[in-house]
Amino acid sequence: MKNVTDSFVSLGHWPSAGSFGFNTDILATNPINLSVVLGVLIFFGKGVLSDLLDNRKQRILNAIRNSEELRGRAIEQLEKARARLRKVKMEADQYRVNGYSEIERERLNLINSTYKTLEQLENYKNETIHFEQQRAINQVRQRVFQQALQGALGTLNTCLNNELHLRTISVNIDMLGAMNKITD
C-alpha cells in the first residue's frame, strides 16, 4: 500500500520535460487544459448541480405553497374573528338599546307610580282636611248650641216668673191636645 501512495506523492515531483503531469501555474496552463477541465466539470457536475437546483426549487415552491396555505387559513380565521366581532358588537348594541329602553321604561313606571302615590297622598290630605273641618265645625256648633241653650235658659229663668211659667205650660198642653185631635 505504501508503494501506491508513494507513486501519487511522487507525481508532483516528476520532471516537467517530456512527462505527463498537472501544471499548477494558472497563467502557464493552456486553454485546452482549461476547456477539458471545464468540460469534465460541466459534464459530470451538470446532473449534480441541476439536482441541487431542482431540490432547492422544490423546497422553495413547497415553502411558498405552505406559506400560501397558512396565509389562506390566517385570512379565513381573521374573517371568522371579524364576523364574530361584528356579531358580538351587534348583540352588545342590542343589549345596550334594550337596556336603555328597559331603564327608560322603569323610569317612566317609577314616575307614574310616584305620581299616583302623590295623587293618593293629596286625596288623603284633602279627605283629612275635610274631616278635620267637619269635626271643628261640629265642635263649634255644639259649643254655640250649648252656649245659646245656656243663654236662653238663663234668660228664661230670669225673665219667667211662676205665673208666666204656668201660662206657657198650659198653652203648650193645649197645643198638644189640639194636635192630638187633628191627628185622630
What does this entry look like structurally?
This protein has 184 residues and is an all-alpha fold. 88% of the residues lie in helices and 0% in strands. It has one domain (35-176). The protein has helices at 2-11, 31-159, 162-183. It is rod-shaped. The relative contact order is 0.02. Residues 64-98 form a coiled coil. GO terms for molecular function: proton-transporting ATP synthase activity, rotational mechanism.
- The level of helicity is over 70%
Number of strands: 0
Taken together, the total number of domains comes to 1
- What is the N-to-C order of secondary-structure elements (H for helix, E for strand)? HHH
Low-confidence stretches: 1-16
Largest sheet: none
Using the CA coordinates, give the radius of gyration: 68 Å
Name the beta content range.
Answer: under 5%
Transmembrane segments: 32-49
Family: Belongs to the ATPase B chain family.
InterPro entries: ATP_synth_b/b'su_bac/chlpt (IPR002146)
Membrane topology: Single-pass membrane protein
